[in-house]
Structure formats: structure tokens, C-alpha cells
């Protein structure tokens, strides 16, 4: 993948979310997000906790998620439940954590993998997952509050992540990996290409829709994406932009 540095884009995604959060009223912070069972404050607490985990992982000592639950989702829910706090405290915690995470990722040895949820990732790949998570949770915050959060060229990192992890997603679903080509239209109208153009299966359409399907914020049937070949529809069903 070519383009802007992913850590720069992670910082930009965080700044975009920070600008939204800085303008929220106390009632908005306490309101339900699109993440089931979580308020806006809970979503930001989760982001703070996971950014703190980035720092710990780069330092060589990531948290053991299994201590908090049998599944990643269960562990994340338990962590949020255990550390709920007033919105101003949570916002300050996330602000500090995100800056520390960016600094840690910038200073990390590029070729040395660090442990993360589902295994070891190189720092740039870990940064890419953090772009995806901040973007998805920004949608969880802004959607219910009807706050505009336009798609940007930063989606290229998320689309790359979804496409590059398709073999893992197929295996996780108990399906044999299949080669799938993706031709996705960026927010500015340019076209991004991922994979082998001669693959038997292909997905074409808006990058924003593809990324939302991968974030499980949009059902494949509602995404308006065009599928071709024997494995494209299955690829959309298993597509994921996250490690759990």
C-alpha cells in the first residue's frame, strides 16, 4: 500500500474525532452510541483503554485480554464496565492515551512485530488497525447524534486492511481462502485497486461502503457493492477490519 504515512493518518483520524468530542454537551456524552450497550462516554473509554494497550504492546508487555473474558468482545465490555468514569475524565484519559500511542508507534522498530489481540503485528499494521477502530467508533458516536463525519482518503488504509486480511477472515469462518480483487471508489472519485485483477472473484463499489461492511456497520445486502465470481459474496460476508 502506498500513500500517506499510516501513523500520520491515525493522528489525523484521532484529531477529527477529538474535534467532535470537544463540542459535545454532557447529555450527548451520556447518550446511547451505536455500539450496543455503550454510551458515547463508554466508546471513548474503550478507545482510551485500547490506546493504552498499544503503548504497552510496543513496550513488550501487552495486557492479557483473556483475564477479562472468554472472548475479545466480552473482555472489552468487562474493561469498560470496570473503569467507567465521568465524561471529562474519560476524554482527558483518551487524549493522553492517543498521543502516547502515536508516539510509541512512531518510535517502534518498523520490522519488529508486537503482540496484539489475535497475534503479532508490525507497528504499521497495528497503526492501521487503530485507524480502522477510531473511524468505526467515530461512526458509533456521530451517527446517533446526527453529526456529520465525512469519509476521507484515510479509508484507503482501512480498505487495504479488510482486503489483506480476507484469507484470515475466510479461515475464521471455516471457509477455504479465495482470491478476491477489489476495485473501490475513494471519496474524491479516484479508484483504489487491491489484489490481482485477474482473480476469478471481484468486488466493486464505494470504498466507504466496503469499509462499513468490514466494520460491521453496514450489511452487505445494503452496501450497494457489485460482486462477481464464485467467492465475492462470501468475501463480503466474512470481511472484517478488526482483529477479534
From TrEMBL:
<dbReference type="GO" id="GO:0046872">
    <property type="term" value="F:metal ion binding"/>
</dbReference>
<protein>
    <submittedName>
        <fullName>TIGR03084 family protein</fullName>
    </submittedName>
</protein>
<dbReference type="InterPro" id="IPR024344">
    <property type="entry name" value="MDMPI_metal-binding"/>
</dbReference>
<dbReference type="Pfam" id="PF11716">
    <property type="entry name" value="MDMPI_N"/>
</dbReference>
<dbReference type="InterPro" id="IPR034660">
    <property type="entry name" value="DinB/YfiT-like"/>
</dbReference>
<dbReference type="InterPro" id="IPR017517">
    <property type="entry name" value="Maleyloyr_isom"/>
</dbReference>
<feature type="domain" description="Mycothiol-dependent maleylpyruvate isomerase metal-binding">
    <location>
        <begin position="10"/>
        <end position="141"/>
    </location>
</feature>
